[in-house]
Amino acid sequence: MTAGERRLLIQRVAFSTLGLATALTVLPIILIVGVIAWKGMPALAPSFLFEAPRDGLRAGGIWPALVGTVYLTVGTGLIAVPVGLAAAIYLSEYARETFFTRAIRIAIINLAGIPSVVYGLFGLALFVLFLKLGTSIVAASLTLSIMTLPVIISTAEEALRAVPQSFRLVSQGMGGTKWQTIRRIVLPQALPGILTGVILGLERAAGETAPILFTGAALFLPQLPRSIFDETMALPYHLFVISTQVPGMPVKVQFGTALVLLVFVLSMNVLATFIRSYHRRRRQW
Amino acid sequence: MARTRHPLEAAIESIVRLSGWSAIVFVALISLFLLKEGLPAFGEVPLASLFGTRWYPIEGFYALGPLIWGSLVVTVGAALFAVPLGVGAAMFIAEVAPRWLREVLKPLVEILAGLPSVVLGFLGIVVLVPAIRETLGLATGLTALTGSLLLAGMALPTIVSVAEDALDAVPSAYKIGSLALGASRWQTLWRVTLPAARTGVLTAIMLGVGRAIGETMAVMMVTGNAPVVLFGPHALVSPVRTMTATVAAEMGEVARGSVHYHVLFTVGLVLFVISFVVNVLASIVLLKRRAAAGRMLS
């Protein structure tokens, strides 16, 4: 075997090993989604989606949990999107690179890394007890929105920065003020990127359990919450409860719940991917 | 003529600046409230108990050691799976896979990042736990190993995407130069690209492992939650209890303001400090390459 052949053989072995590592990473993902879809599908009937649970959660549907998760996701968005977007505009359009902006960036990365259960503790201490909001939709949404903030800020900032500098110069050269430039030129151009970030952030919030455990999630409620100061059921917490706390739980209901949660979360993921690629194809700069 | 600023412009700038500061405010608030609720524990529980070896709140034993040890065992186990797989997959996606395959693989990894941890925990209970009990002939499948496998799944997307970014950011002149000198593609990847990207790859590993330490639901559901300290290899195939699982499982049942309540906040404080250290170190590296910082958070 010549040196060249040997080198090629080593390369082939090495690349195959890397390919194997990739397969071991990716195949379980396909398997997970496949198994849940396959085993959860039989549970999906209109009554499963639109009825409240019965018989100690063992029968009936998941309607209150589904609605609760929508409430929490919307609530999180209402709080996190304005603050996150404004923060991104500050970092991209107003802030100069100072020690202080550096500190902001480090704080953002830190927020992103804080364990979700610690957010739960924080929400309990600040929102539920100190601000006396009680375990409620507001308290849970506030907790989730702080957790979502870093994702929204960083992706929105990236989208804003991607808008070419010349766009801003032209607008200001024609007499536009800084805010007019941002509102009429920069924001519309960055909108798809911002939307992608918002959806990815909310996707994470929708699937989280630990932050809402002690801030607003209810084990079981016979009716839908009537105000934002009520507790609510939520899909991820419901799945946790029925897979660990209820003896004799039918597997079909568990898989059905997991599938609905997965579809809820993954459809947001797909939407974000779609917006990104659609925009990339149409973009003229 | 000096330009006078419109009041609207000034108002908007201050709103926007205030929001910009919010990240710092929230980090400060989080540490403040964890300290406020967690520090009293040091006055209420004898230090000998806090630094002892038993976690048994009903009888007043609040040792942090077994919980920290539990988190450590599960996390190290997860790293053993996730680091080689993640870095390998990142190398494959960045440098080996053809373009079309890359376009398929990257969204798939993103799906894993988007999977709620309860869903992984649920599958862990119905699939992984019985499988591990039977294949290893154990009394229970609720073990540290089961938790490690799930955690590896949670750490992988972070490791793959940050490491892949780092490899991608290596200037192509390095690679072209290496190839032009007669090195094979593998030699270029192994001896030039990977060493050039090493800080980024290390950051990826740190962030992934950091995420694993803080993961809660999946771990709580499959590790059996036994607060015992076992050393040696059989620790991996025995039940353990992590810091995150303890907080999540017990906070719902304790009286507000009790000793137990304060100790659980102390555990939260420990978790916060760990994530703070990991992330400050990682951000120092990542802020040198801002684009990667954005990717890492998304």
- Global structural class of chain A: mainly alpha
Broad CATH class of chain A? Mainly Alpha
Query: Mind telling me which CATH architecture of chain B this is?
Result: Orthogonal Bundle
CATH topology of chain B: MetI-like fold
Count of structural domains of chain B = 1
In short:
The complex is a heterodimer of chains A (285) and B (298). Chain A is mostly helical. Chain A is 76% helix and 1% strand.
Q: How would you portray this structure in words?
A:
The complex is a heterodimer of chains A (285) and B (298). Chain A is mainly α and 285 residues long. Chain A has a single domain, classed as MetI-like fold (Orthogonal Bundle), CATH 1.10.3720. Helices cover 76% and strands 1% of the residues of chain A. Chain A is built from eleven helices and two strands, in the order ααββααααααααα. In chain A, strands 1-2 form a two-stranded antiparallel sheet. In chain A, strand 1 and strand 2 form a beta hairpin. In chain A, helix 1 crosses helix 11 and helix 6 packs across helix 8. Chain A starts with a helix and ends with a helix. The mean pLDDT of chain A is 92. With 298 residues, chain B is an all-alpha fold. Chain B has a single domain, classed as Orthogonal Bundle (MetI-like fold), CATH 1.10.3720. In chain B, strands 1-2 form a two-stranded antiparallel ribbon. In chain B, strand 1 and strand 2 form a beta hairpin. Chains A and B meet through helix 1, helix 3, helix 4, helix 5 and helix 6 of A and helix 1, helix 4, helix 5, helix 6 and helix 7 of B.
